[in-house]
Amino acid sequence: EMSWDDFARSGFSNATLKGNPTGKLALHEQTVDTVVFDGVDFANLTLSKVDFRNVLFRQCTFVNLDFSDRYFGRVRFEGCNLLGTKWIKAALFDVAFKDGNLAYANFSSSSLKNVLFEKSSLKESFFAETEFKDVSFDDSNLSGAEFFKTSLNGIDLSTDIVEGLHCEKESLQGAIIAPAQAIDFIAYLGLKIKDE
Fold first, then answer.
1. pTM (2 d.p.)
2. How far apart are the C-alpha atoms of 144 and 104, rounded to whole Å?
3. With contact defined as beta carbons under 8 Å apart, do 121 and 139 qualify?
4. Are strands 13-18 and 25-38 parallel, antiparallel or unpaired?
5. Nearest CA-CA partner of 137 in 168, 169, 105
């Protein structure tokens, strides 16, 4: 473990940090590399133009943080609260979100390559013109999530909650669903189900 002061002195790399810094810490135009953050509330840090690579975030809090235009490479979020985070035009490469809260997160115009969402809440999240390559949603809650001009082709949604998901027909083409989910998607085909 390292103190926050030493972390700042070492150029924000190669550290394990637990808990919050005393006082406000500002990072500007930095790449944070090879760091474990454990139980950190990022409301205590001011981040501007900060990228992350080879980073593990464990039980961290990022409520309403703005990661727009930032780069995340080989990053894992475990049990983190990412409620209302913004990832507009962000680049995520080799990123995993496990047991996370990403409700109301906005991934518009971002690029996601080799990204896993596992056992995470993405309720009311927003994907517009988002580029997916090797993206997985496993056992996650996508209720009320919106996919607009974002191709779900080849993406397996069969283990996810998809109730009230919003999507145009074009985005949905080629998505893989479980038989029991078909009823949630039938409206997109312009079909109506007759009440028995």
1. 0.94
2. 9
3. no
4. parallel
5. 105
Whether residue 59 contacts residue 80, with contact meaning beta carbons closer than 8 Å, is answered with yes
The alpha carbons of the chain give a radius of gyration, in whole angstroms, of 18
Three-class DSSP category at 9: helix
User: What does the DSSP 8-state code read for residue 160?
Assistant: S
**Nearest CA-CA partner of 89 in 41, 128, 48, 33:** 128
- 11 touches 32 (CB < 8 A): no
Q: d(Cα 67, Cα 91) in Å, to the nearest integer? A: 10
Helices (H) and strands (E) in the chain, counts: 3, 10
Q: Quick check: helix, strand or coil at residue 182?
A: helix
What six digits make up the tokens of 62? Answer: 């990022």
CB neighbour list of residue 186: distance below 8 Å, 6 or more residues apart: 193
Tell me the torsion sign for CA atoms 134, 138, 140, 146: positive
- For each of the chain's 196 residues, which pLDDT tens digit applies? 788 888 888 889 999 999 999 888 899 999 999 999 999 999 989 999 999 999 999 999 999 999 999 999 999 999 999 999 999 999 999 999 999 999 999 999 999 999 999 999 999 999 999 999 999 999 999 999 999 999 999 999 999 999 999 998 899 999 999 999 988 888 777 788 888 8
